[in-house]
Specification:
Blueprint: H1 2-15, H2 19-40, H3 51-82, H4 84-88, H5 95-125, H6 133-157, H7 161-177, H8 190-195, H9 200-212, H10 222-242
Length: about 250
């Protein structure tokens, strides 16, 4: 346990030194949320949801994506390229402690980012927060774990920082704009609505909205939960087979 705590402190220290990770985890989602709230507050969305019922979960979904790809997947590649993990092999730290610390860092970033969005919504726009906090917490945690597994696939495929960054940036645009996280899917052309079914963040957005609005355990949520569970299983298998802490 002591080794996990020690490495977690190091991971958090490195996290707060990474401008790119901080930008995409805390700044971009918060600014987007504020801008869209000013523009679209009062507009109704699919299922009769107002802006905050639809887009508090959506922006937190973006935080999950950016954390998994930029703060975890990309950072692991950077640290591996710099030889951080190779040097750690000569210390009492083992791979399980490194893995646990990386996961803890991911949850820390997501939970802090989620609280940031909630505070903006509550005190910046005076909106009521969810009455289904437990369902939303379950949805948030499940979606986070699923995207962590995808982030580790990125760090399994990419051997260099530039490659990992390219993958993250290429994935960012469909994740943000074809998932319903920023633009309502019903406003997109039919062909793009069809493409959205192949974007993992689409299912995260749906599950987070279900948790936020108290319908996580309804039958309509089963498909989205099942797809994410499938992604988690496949990603875990691929990650276990191909992921390496050192070259």
């Amino acid at each position: 346990m002591h080794s996990i705590l020690t490495h977690t402190k190091m991971e958090l220290k490195l996290f707060f030194r990474e401008t790119l990770a901080l930008l995409f985890t805390f700044i971009v989602p918060a600014v987007s949320f504020i801008v869209f709230a000013i523009m679209f507050n009062g507009v109704s969305y699919g299922g009769g949801l107002d802006y905050f019922q639809a887009y508090i979960p959506s922006m937190i979904g973006i935080i999950i994506f950016t954390t998994a790809f930029f703060s975890m997947g990309l950072q692991v590649v950077i640290d591996r390229e710099k030889g951080v993990y190779k040097r750690l092999k000569g210390t009492p730290l083992n791979q399980s402690a490194i893995f646990s610390a990386t996961i803890v860092k991911g949850f820390f970033a997501i939970y802090v980012g989620a609280v940031e969005i909630l505070l903006i919504a509550k005190f910046g726009f005076g909106t009521n927060l969810t009455e289904h906090a437990f369902q939303f917490f379950l949805a948030l945690t499940f979606c986070s774990v699923t995207f962590f597994s995808i982030g580790f696939i990125v760090s399994s495929i990419a051997k260099r920082m530039n490659t990992a960054l390219g993958i993250a940036l290429i994935a960012m645009y469909p994740m943000m704009f074809l998932s319903g996280a920023t633009v309502p899917l019903e406003t997109l052309p039919e062909v793009l609505q069809s493409v959205s079914h192949f974007v993992p963040l689409t299912y995260v957005v749906n599950v987070l909205r279900d948790g936020w609005n108290g319908t996580l355990f309804a039958s309509d949520a089963l498909l989205d939960l099942g797809v994410l569970a499938g992604i988690l299983i496949v990603s875990a298998i691929v990650g276990i087979k191909y992921f390496k802490w050192t070259d």
